Amino acid sequence: MTHALPKQDTIAAIATAVVPQQGSVGIVRLSGAESVAIAKTLFHAPGQQRWESHRILYGYIRDPQTQAQVDEALLMLMLAPRSYTREDVVELHCHGGIMAVQTVLHLCLAEGARLAEPGEFTLRAFLNGRLDLTQAESVADLVGARSPQAAQTALAGIQGKLAQPIRQIRTECLDILAEVEARVDFEDDLPPLDEDLIRAQIQQVLDTVQRILATADQGELLRSGLKVAIVGRPNVGKSSLLNAWSQSDRAIVTDLPGTTRDVVESQLVVQGIPVQVLDTAGIREATDQVERLGVERSRQVAQAADLVLFAIDASAGWTEDDEIIYHQVSHRPLILILNKIDLLQTPLSLPAHLAHPTVKTAAAQQQGIDAMETAILEAVHAGSLTAANLDMAINQRQANALRRAHTALLHVQDTISQQLPLDFWTIDLRDAIQALGEITGEEITESVLDRIFSKFCIGK
Questions:
Q1: What is the pLDDT of residue 21?
Q2: Could you point out which of 222, 274, 356, 389 has its C-alpha 20 to 30 Å from the C-alpha of 305?
């Protein structure tokens, strides 16, 4: 369905993160017909500065009721349609922190603007034809990117690298539908339909859909990242492994068992993939109440992780405690880490049932980390995830719509094979076209838009 254009009211929001005592600049953004009028009421630009589009003005923000000066600021003016929303947009660049931007925002609201809803600036950009839906979703992906690879893929989406092939295959489906419907309406006036050609065209579309669908898992990995838990009994070197991997002293390392009492987290990037590494407390039967809580949390983290790094002390060999822990995590995707390999005096013998990838490390000596990263990438089938071959990556909403389109096109092929009337062909073709249109926004419902844009921050 075609979504109605937004109301012509003026919205305002803080467009930058608000952090106490941090941030040199805070931006208050206005969009709508009254943006310029509100800005002129609040902003005093000394001298002969001209209020022209795409110019930056210097001046002061004043409370129009008291004439008290609120902040020294810059004003950026972008008149429609040459703005992010294709409406008149004003940005007030204030001093960062909390007080200045909050005060300026309240003044904008007092002068008639409405506080923007989450994602409403980008929603207006979509509804006004500035962005399609894939580009709008990529804006959110870029804001939330946790690695250079994720940012690059999101930027490709903003540039239309996902929308272009989707529009192309939707156009091809529309062309096929037009050919079929023409035979339904004017059968006696047109030559017979070339069924072989139609089959070939549908197969070509299906092949393209499959190629795009293949990016879904990689895209989810880039957006959400990989949660990795390091587990094992106390004093096997889990914290040393985290520190060697993160190249920092995130975890306390001593010779005393039970040093780590809670889960220690580190954020890393492995060949473009965000990785959340969780160093857990050594799993054992603890008597100390605090340590017992830490052990229980460790068990919970291991069950929720995408991948478990099960660390053992190679110099001590496989122990009964290792076996107990192994049975608690063996159903999870798992890599066996043989740590302290540099202290091994005799050949290490492992039980035959440990049919998992194995990596040898000496964390205290910074050895084996590269091999561990390689094993992790292989474990998640992401070894080919590089900037060169991932120009686009669909999200789960887009993947679901593509799967529906794929199923509908398969039904068309079945309909042709069964020699059913042409009217039956058109039903599934329309379903495919509908699903493809939902991806870019040509066919979209208000509830879907609400669901998408509610995940945005208010200033975006």
A1: 61
A2: 389
